[in-house]
Each structure stands twice: as C-alpha cells, then as structure tokens.
Specification:
- The chain has 451 residues and is of the alpha/beta class.
- It has two domains: 2-220, Rossmann fold, CATH 3.40.50.300; 232-444, Glycerol-3-phosphate (1)-acyltransferase, CATH 3.40.1130.
- It contains 17 helices and 15 strands.
- The protein has helices at residues 13-24, 32-44, 51-64, 90-99, 103-119, 129-133, 147-161, 169-185, 207-231, 234-255, 262-266, 283-290, 308-316, 330-341, 364-373, 385-388, 421-444; strands at 2-7, 27-30, 65-70, 73-78, 81-82, 122-126, 139-144, 198-201, 258-260, 272-276, 295-300, 319-322, 345-348, 377-383, 403-406.
- The strands form three sheets. It has a seven-stranded mixed beta sheet with strand order 9-15-14-10-13-11-12, with helices on both faces. A five-stranded parallel beta sheet has the order 2-6-1-7-8, sandwiched between helices. A three-stranded antiparallel beta sheet has the order 3-4-5.
Length: 451
C-alpha cells in the first residue's frame, strides 16, 4: 500500500510522515533529500544550470548516489561519502527547486521512487507524489499552512544545525515564498493538490492530531477501495460496510475489543490466507470486522440460513461455503483459489470445527491451500471467544473482554515444495507454535509487536 503526502515547504510533511510511520508500521520515504542530493552533486561539480548541462550529469549522479536506512534513519551518500548532514539549508533547498524543474532529473529519480514503492508499504513525501509519481496511490494527503507558520518551522529547523547562522526569519519567509512560486509555476510536475487528496491545514494542528486525521482517512479510503473491488455492487458495499460498522461499535462497547499486530498485515500485500483459531461462533464476525481490508471466509454449508435469502446475505458478507465433514469441497476450493489469484485475503480455520480450549487437530486443508496457492499465511489468535460464548451456552454473554492478535506471517518462499506429509507437518507445527506464542503474548504483556 502507498500513502502520498504532498505540500509546500514547511507544511510539516516530513514530521507528520515520520509520526505516521511509527503508528502505521509503513516505511517513510522523503523524496526531498533525493533532489537536494542531486543539487549538491551539481553544485560540487560547478555545473551551470541548464537543461542540457544537467541532463548530461544525471546518469553520473545516479551512479554516485546511494542511500539506505539505518536504525530508522535514512543515510545518503555521494561517491561513498555520507552527505546526510549537508542536505539542509534554505540555499540548497532553493537550488534543488531550480534543478527539479528539468525533466531529466525528475525522470531519473522517478524510477528510484517507483521501484521502492513496488517492494514495500510506504509513505512517500514530496511535491508531486500523488499527482505524478503515484497517481493511483490508495491514500493521498495534501498539507498546507500559512506562510508565517511555515517560515517559523523552517527557521527553527535550520537553527538546530546552524546555530551561528546570521540568516533571519524574514529571509527564510522570503526564500520560502520564492520557492513556492517556482514549484507552482514550473512546467514539469508543478506543486498542486492531487486529485482525490485529503487536504489538511496544519497551521494550528499538532502532529498527533494530523496523524489521527490521516489514519481515519487511511482506514476509510482503504476499506472503500477494497469493498468496491471485492463486492462490486454499491448495495454490497453498503451492506458489508454497515455490518462492519455495527460490529465494531457493538464489540468495542460490549467486549472492550482490542486489536494488536496490524503491522504484520501491512507486510502482506495481495492474496493471503488468514489462519485463525476457532473457539466460538463469534470468531468470523469479530475478525472480519476489524481487518484493514475485507475478507472472504470459509463457513459450513450446513448453517441453517444458508439457503434462499440467507445464502445471498452470507455471500454478500464474504462467506464461501464448505461441505461439513469433508476437507475442502471442490467448488469452495476453486473459489478460494480465484479469490487469492485476485489478490484477496481468505479467512480459514485450520481446526475445521469449534474447539474452545485447544488448537488441535489441524486439518490438511490449510497446508494444501498454502502449498498450491503459494501465498503468505497470517496467523490470528482470537482471545476471549470461548468465555463470551461458552460451548454449552445457547446465546453469547453481553459482557466480557476480547482481543484479536495478528502474528508474524509465514511467507510462500518459506513453504516446502509440493504437498506431502513432511510439508503438512511443518505447516501444522508452525500454526500450533504461532497460536501458542500469540496466546502467551496476549496473556502476559501485550507490549510491543506480537511475535
């Protein structure tokens, strides 16, 4: 998934992106240092600024330029020398703005950004991220603020690394307005609010409040996009989303529901199997209500309402029926592969039946699906289901505590080749150990990232 944050200088893009990265588990990729590194390279080589001269140097710059993340901090290098500390200051920023107007520069850096976006869940920060580089990004944010507030932020940031500088706040504001003019009027990828972006005025807002606004929009945009993609018709979207909203409100109120480990979810883009313990009838309802994107879920075709309107309703909610007493019905098997091929996620219960106080036995269906589909498996432990709805109780209790914990996924590359007893044994052991670790984590600490 890609989130873009665009805006002028001093609007808080980088600060907000870093805070959002910590909350969401996404990588934060600020494109500003790329352009400033290019400007620094040209400046050191004393290249006269013109399209022809700059175009001749871009390929050399790309060969000399490297970057990587170390303990959460990006480091930038030119010809092997760390120049991270040199990529600040109004003068270099203004020069970078002049360099950024040339198509050769933007084309050279565009590939770096898009290649990185293909491999990770990323928050991209810049001036044309949502309009040019990633126009199809799932979530687009555009930040703006008053010129005086932006200048104040820039000035404070500059003084942190240049305490003896004679530059004044008025000069910073003047440079900032000059750069705004250059960014907005350039012919190549000008600074604009991307189509469909969520605009936030950051002048009087704290970083935490901005991040909270973005997370709310991220959740809405992400689910809406996937709902339409998964269910097609508007009425299906409305029906599914209404059930999720009702479920979230009800479960949080009655059962003090908590969700942990969604960072593991964001590491699995595309199709995946969600393997959960099965302790009560509530499991599918709880899990599907709190996932970042809609799920299809396996369910027994023996359920009494699985006929007529009941069948249609359950299908709109994402249920795939299986025949009771068999491993996986052929039609269900084909439908699951179809969903996974379309990069959707399918919820399965490896135990095959409600077993409140144990994780065994594990049926071969999950192993077969994982080996054939070659998709990641995300373990999910649902805590509290058996206590809320004990096996011999006719109806669930209207109080209690529950939690959903997502664990570290088993990726397709880690699966053994071909279905076999050994393969089934390995996947079975992984599922049981994952459930055990997650159960222990939620019962002891609930601190940090679930294992």
């Amino acid at each position: 998934m890609i989130i873009t944050i665009d805006g002028g200088a001093g609007t808080g893009k980088s600060t907000v992106a870093k805070a959002l990265s910590k909350r969401s588990g996404f990588l934060c990729f600020d494109t500003g240092p790329l352009y400033r590194a290019c400007a620094l390279y040209l400046k050191k080589r004393k290249v006269e600024v013109s399209e022809k001269n700059v175009a001749a140097e871009v390929s050399l710059f790309l060969e000399a330029f490297t970057f990587f993340q170390e303990e959460g901090v990006w480091r930038y290098f030119l010809e092997g020398l760390d120049v991270t500390g040199d990529l600040h200051g109004p003068e270099l920023s203004l020069f970078a703005s002049k360099v950024a107007v040339f198509p050769s520069v933007r084309k050279g850096l565009l590939k770096i950004q898009r290649d990185f976006g293909k491999r990770h869940n990323v928050i991209f920060v810049g001036r044309d991220m949502g309009s040019v580089v990633f126009p199809e990004a799932e979530v687009k944010i555009f930040l703006h603020a008053s010129s005086k507030e932006r200048a104040r932020r820039r000035y404070a940031e500059f003084l942190q690394t240049n305490k003896n500088s004679s530059i004044t706040l008025a000069q910073v504001e003047q440079d900032l307005l000059q750069r705004d003019q250059q960014d907005r009027t350039r012919s190549e990828a000008p600074l604009i609010c991307p189509k469909g972006a969520y605009k936030i005025n950051t002048t009087k807002l704290s970083v935490d409040s901005i991040v909270e606004k973005i997370l709310q929009k991220k959740s809405f945009f992400f689910k809406k996009q996937h709902f339409y993609k998964f269910f097609g018709k508007r009425r299906s979207f409305a029906f599914y989303s209404l059930n999720c909203l009702c479920g979230i409100s009800c479960f949080k109120t009655l059962y003090k529901m908590k969700v942990f480990g969604l960072e593991h979810w964001t590491n699995c883009r595309g199709g995946a199997l969600i393997a959960a313990n099965h302790s009560s009838y509530l499991d599918p309802l709880f899990i599907t209500s709190f996932t970042p994107e809609p799920l299809w879920a396996l369910g027994g075709s023996h359920i009494s309402i699985y006929s007529g309107w009941g069948k249609r309703m359950l299908h709109m909610l994402g249920m795939i029926p299986i025949t009771a007493g068999s491993s996986v019905h052929l039609s269900a098997f084909k439908e699951i592969f179809s969903k996974l091929a379309d990069k959707r996620k399918v919820l399965i219960f490896p135990q095959g039946a409600r077993l409140p106080y144990t994780f065994e036995p594990v049926r071969r269906g999950m192993t077969l699906l994982a080996l054939k589909a070659k998709v990641p498996i995300i373990p999910v432990y649902f805590a509290g289901g058996a206590e809320i709805w004990p096996p011999k109780r006719k109806y669930p209790k209207l109080y209690g505590k529950a939690a959903i914990v997502f664990g570290s996924p088993l990726f397709a590359s880690e699966l053994p080749e071909g279905p076999s007893r050994i393969a089934h044994g390995l996947v079975k052991e992984w599922f049981l150990s994952s459930m055990g670790r997650l159960k222990s984590w939620v019962e002891t600490s609930c601190q940090g990232l679930p294992p």
